[in-house]
Amino acid sequence: MSSIKPLPNFLAQRYHGWKATTYDENKAWYRLLASEGQRPRAMVISCCDSRVHVTSIFGAEQGEFFIHRNIANLVPPFEPDGDHHGTSAAVEYAVTVLKVAHVVVLGHSLCGGVNGCLKMCSGEAPELEKSSSFVGRWMDILRPGYERIADVPEEEKARALEYQAVLVSLENLLTFPFVKERADAGLLSLHGLWTDISEGTLHSYHPDDGEFHPV
Amino acid sequence: MSSIKPLPNFLAQRYHGWKATTYDENKAWYRLLASEGQRPRAMVISCCDSRVHVTSIFGAEQGEFFIHRNIANLVPPFEPDGDHHGTSAAVEYAVTVLKVAHVVVLGHSLCGGVNGCLKMCSGEAPELEKSSSFVGRWMDILRPGYERIADVPEEEKARALEYQAVLVSLENLLTFPFVKERADAGLLSLHGLWTDISEGTLHSYHPDDGEFHPV
Amino acid sequence: MSSIKPLPNFLAQRYHGWKATTYDENKAWYRLLASEGQRPRAMVISCCDSRVHVTSIFGAEQGEFFIHRNIANLVPPFEPDGDHHGTSAAVEYAVTVLKVAHVVVLGHSLCGGVNGCLKMCSGEAPELEKSSSFVGRWMDILRPGYERIADVPEEEKARALEYQAVLVSLENLLTFPFVKERADAGLLSLHGLWTDISEGTLHSYHPDDGEFHPV
Amino acid sequence: MSSIKPLPNFLAQRYHGWKATTYDENKAWYRLLASEGQRPRAMVISCCDSRVHVTSIFGAEQGEFFIHRNIANLVPPFEPDGDHHGTSAAVEYAVTVLKVAHVVVLGHSLCGGVNGCLKMCSGEAPELEKSSSFVGRWMDILRPGYERIADVPEEEKARALEYQAVLVSLENLLTFPFVKERADAGLLSLHGLWTDISEGTLHSYHPDDGEFHPV
Questions:
Q1: Quick one: pLDDT band at residue D1, thresholds 50, 70, 90?
Q2: Can you give the pLDDT at residue A1?
Q3: Under DSSP, is residue B47 helix (H, G, I), strand (E, B) or coil?
Q4: Does D21 touch chain A (CB under 8 A)?
């Protein structure tokens, strides 16, 4: 395993900067979080994309948000088949163990995963259809969303499918019995967001009219 | 879906604060990231835990790290079986599309997922053994690590298994042909880290002696 | 005094967010409040509890409420003995200098101070009886309230004593000559409230039947 | 007690607005705070002044800050004499029961209490010297601060004494054994702030040069 190496210096240097500043000024809080355990108010499901850091947008501090990040901020449907389901495990832990009050799904513009899904579903990316394509099989979760945007003009399809990535995930979340139960009891609310990387705008899904509106 | 609601005001307020400050002073960079695409230097795989934000520890700015977060920072082995594999999809995208130069696996102290695995493997948490337990089935990935720490004294097992969560993931990463290939070509290096939430220390895995050393 | 440190960054960031948004859009009003002085309509006495912010419940804007917060929203009786009396000083300033029209005492459910008093008075918390216990000595103010709920069933005592924390404070307020005088002249009215943290309900004391009724 | 009345309608109306909006969208969080108890990160000691709401400046949400407000944000020295000490009780509860990581003392411009102290100490307000003046006796806590600003030019004395109200309080906080102990153990840090009501600026005390600097 010669490709496994100690931490590169550029990261070590940054770490030391953090240790001497942020850690030092928050030491008491971090120790409290360690001794008393975490109690985040919300779970956020967002994309791995390096341009969308929920910790930045919401000024998230240590202890505030339980964050799961995957390609295209997707939640698969409830499938208790005994296989590894990383997203479902994260949702289960957040909702049943940590008892978060909110689950926020945060989509974004220019999403590479959503764009791949768009190409795959429209027949332009046969390599993503292969059984061996992890990205393709992951984006299968979004296929129901693609079907719903059949009537959307071509030039608006990317945005529409990014919205669907949020909506399909919210719907799938409600297929989990433990999510549904706490939501019905008024102990959990779900929220759909989409952010434009370039303009820094944030849109929130309003279920009453089924649209995303600027926050 | 009455449990789906618009963004709560406390998050809207924080967002507006970010928009008026951080976004405003970095607008040119964010627009460039949007128009030119992301080009992160590293992928980081870390835990969902609200107390471990890699964006904080490394002062990560927009565009720098492609971040996947799941319970206990685990990577499953290469299993191209056509099912949804969120972690494998993220690794595939980072390595083959974005061509990141580093993959960093960041473990941490007091990990709830690792602790659950410890209890499950030692027979103290039968509920996690159920087929329907997403957390249990996800933590199955770490079972080989549990077997390796059989001789570790009881009071050191938690830390030892947290280290294993990093090591098993690094090993599993190398079972992915596209990871192996780029690593062998010297185009990708892998790094194992572990951070202590309370003390803010960071330990890096050194393959030469097989130990984690403080950075 | 090495434990005294500059403002942590997480608070600085929130402040900058406020400055760029709320302050900016209310600048003219804040400047007027500075140049002309404050003229709050009411004084509110509420608990320090982080879950009860009167500014939130009543949407209090800058300039509207003069707010004193202490453990269990208590007002001690009139004792002009030359010692430091923070609560009495606040009441004196609000009533004689600012000439507020209302004094509102806001109690709440799950009050840690009231619960401590309950345990202390029933003999379960000897540590609170010590002369050196600031919380214990402060809660002494509520002892007369405990005596009045002697006949209340055990499981209703906490709520009953929370009500008493409001009522004893209202009664003590009227022992202050300057409060009595303005109240008798019809220039000041007193109000007793109690809010349920969990349900968000608000109950108002009605002197005609001596009960708290939902608002 | 005919001066005790039910809640005035203007406050009832505001409450109903909050209940239908903020409460409704945060119901799950408030219920969690009720069932699990509060765990604020910081205690804030600020003035009753209606123009300085820390909940606004820091966007404080339910559950985040344990807030004590009194005239001129003062903390008296440690005096375990068995009398009622509301401020000391609040500090004791925050530090020993809630184990907050930070105590922030927030002063402000145009402070009526500080101004009264200035007049009292310079002989211009004999009525505040009376044993029966609660405001006067409360402001006695700040007398040591007045002595230290003897050399400050007349026109800068108000600001200097507002700073002293913060510094004397920080010093007094460290006379409490339970504060000192946790501070020495690195589990608690203290912070001094001063805000300008008119300009919305915020200054933080830096112990290294003994000055307040803009945040």
A1: low
A2: 52
A3: strand
A4: no
Q: Which is nearest to B138 in space by CA: D25, A87, C72, A21?
A: A87
Average pLDDT over residues A148-171: 97
Token representation of residue D15: 């409450």
CATH of the domain at D198: 3.40.1050.10
What is residue C68's three-state secondary structure? Answer: strand
Same domain flag for B109 and B136 = yes
Both C31 and C43 in a single domain?
A: no
Residue with tokens 């992890």: A134
- Residue C91 inside a domain? The answer is yes
**Looking at the structure, do residues D159 and D175 belong to the same domain, yes or no?**
yes
Best D24, D189, D208 residue to mutate vs chain A (most A CBs within 10 Å): D189
On whether both B129 and B149 belong to a single domain, the answer is yes
Nearest to C57 by CA among D55, B14, D35, A191: D55
Enumerate the residues of chain C whose CB falls inside 8 A of the CB of residue A26.
8, 10
For chain B, how many structural domains are there in total? 2
CA-derived radius of gyration, chain D: 19
Asked whether residue B108 is assigned to any structural domain, the reply reads yes
Q: Averaged over D150-157, what is the pLDDT?
A: 96
D60 band by pLDDT with thresholds 50, 70 and 90: confident
How far apart are the two ends of chain D, measured CA to CA in Å? 48
Least confident interval from B108-112, C111-115, D24-28, D78-82: D24-28
Structural domain span for residue C11: 6-37
CA B103 centroid distance within chain: 10
Question: Residue C60 carries which DSSP code?
Answer: P
Amino acid at residue number B8 = P
Which of A31, A35, A38, A65 to mutate to test binding with chain D, by most D CBs within 10 Å of its CB?
A31
Tell me what the pLDDT averaged over chain D comes to: 94
